[in-house]
Write a structure and sequence with these properties.
- This protein folds into 3 domains: 67 residues, no CATH class; 182 residues, P-loop containing nucleotide triphosphate hydrolases (Rossmann fold, 3-Layer(aba) Sandwich), CATH 3.40.50; 89 residues, Arc Repressor Mutant, subunit A, CATH 1.10.10.
- It is built from 17 helices and 7 strands.
- A 5-stranded parallel β-sheet has the order 2-3-4-1-5, with helices on both faces. A two-stranded antiparallel sheet has the order 6-7.
- Helix 9 crosses helix 10 and helix 14 crosses helix 15.
- The two termini are 43 Å apart.
- The model has no long low-confidence stretch (mean pLDDT 94).
């Protein structure tokens, strides 16, 4: 009988916070990130979705002693509300940490802080209160601030300026990790002298999907951890469905283990359908969020669908599809590249994720995406 405890915190767990020993691979990255956190460096961690960025950085931070870890996920931030969203989430994390550390005096100073639906004057005063609380907390323990999907703060100049101020005020007492499902966060936040964070982000790490050997080893070790042995066919099908994306591989592992626990057998078609169903909901939502606030939504959807159907696309084909000039086609392609939806292979562009390709072939793809925008 499979051991379902492995699904709580093991390799196949869907949690982004787990014991570091259950974060597979990335041994070099673990050492580098740990070193930067311990020495108060600021850094960025980029890569395609479901390559394990959030789990890696959160689990490393959680493994350190005598630190306060503040985690702000920007994924749900609506356009033009990024500033309010960031500070509200930061306040919530501060309150949680201050309660845990029993620092009631500091906690009381931010109880009435608010950002949504209040005047600019009140927001500024609230922001100053947050600075003070962070500074006081930093006198008790080192702070690690993780900003997930940090590309969202690019639209909030006030957040970037606030972070630059905290960097200069707290020095090595504060380490900030920016993670994002984009090509580069460091370049966009600090790549030019005029940008507030110029020179403040020390390094950038990029995670890529695994090759077949690593992906296979992950599945084998995950099944072993759950106390089950599966046929080679089950492993091969998992690799075909999930590619080298740890998020999809872990989902596949969870579904297989639950099937074995429930009926004692693996029904391949049911598992494939279950994974496609779960993946579809995530992918529709992700594409919708990418399209939020953009012009010509139908153009982006048409490109994604064409690539899914044909397997690849060129600049000239995008120009023809959109009935635009090549320079405009390049703009669309670059947006899809930067946000990790497409990747370049020689002179062609393909979908980066095999499950995105599968979902985008569905007749209802465009409609499902638009209903979520």
């Amino acid at each position: 009988m499979p051991n379902l405890d492995c699904l709580e915190e093991g390799f196949f767990s869907k949690s982004t916070l787990k014991p570091l020993k259950y974060v597979y691979n990335y041994e070099t990255e673990k050492k580098l990130i740990k070193s930067m956190m311990e020495t108060g460096e600021w850094f960025s961690l980029c890569g395609l979705r479901r390559t394990g960025k959030t789990t890696l950085v959160r689990s490393i931070a959680n493994s350190l002693r005598n630190v306060a870890v503040l985690y702000v996920d920007m994924w749900g931030a609506e356009q033009n509300l990024e500033y309010e969203f960031f500070f509200e989430r930061l306040k919530e994390e501060l309150e949680r940490e201050l309660k845990r550390s029993k620092l009631d005096k500091i906690l009381g100073s931010i109880k009435k802080v608010s950002f949504f639906g209040v005047s600019l004057e009140f927001r500024i005063k609230s922001e100053v209160s947050i600075y003070g609380a962070i500074e006081e907390l930093s006198n008790k323990k080192k702070i690690i601030l993780i900003i997930d999907e940090a590309q969202k703060i690019l639209r909030a100049q006030r957040v970037i300026e606030a972070l630059a101020s905290l960097h200069d005020r707290l020095g090595t007492k504060l380490s900030v990790a920016f993670t994002g499902s984009v090509i580069s966060i460091r370049k966009n936040l600090s790549g030019e002298v005029r940008k507030p964070l110029y020179g403040r982000i020390a390094d950038e790490i990029t995670l890529s999907p695994w090759d077949q050997e690593k992906a296979k080893d992950f599945l084998l070790k995950g099944f072993s951890q759950c106390g089950v042995k599966v046929k080679d066919e089950i492993i091969d099908i998992g690799l075909k469905i999930a590619g080298g994306f740890v998020g999809w591989l872990a989902l596949y592992g969870r579904v297989v283990v639950r099937e074995l626990r429930t009926i004692g057998d693996v029904r391949i078609m049911k598992i494939a359908n279950k994974i496609e169903e779960e993946a579809s909901e995530q992918i529709y939502d992700e594409i919708a969020r990418f399209l939020q606030g953009r012009k010509n939504i139908n153009g982006y959807i048409s490109i994604i669908k064409r690539v899914a159907e044909d397997g690849f696309i060129t600049v000239s084909e995008v120009a023809k599809l959109l009935k635009k000039d090549p320079s405009t086609a390049v703009f669309y392609i670059n947006e899809l590249l930067y946000n990790g939806i497409l990747k370049k292979v020689k002179d062609y562009y393909v979908l980066a994720d095999p499950l995105v390709e599968k979902v985008a072939r569905k007749p209802e793809f465009g409609k499902e995406v638009k209903t979520r925008i």
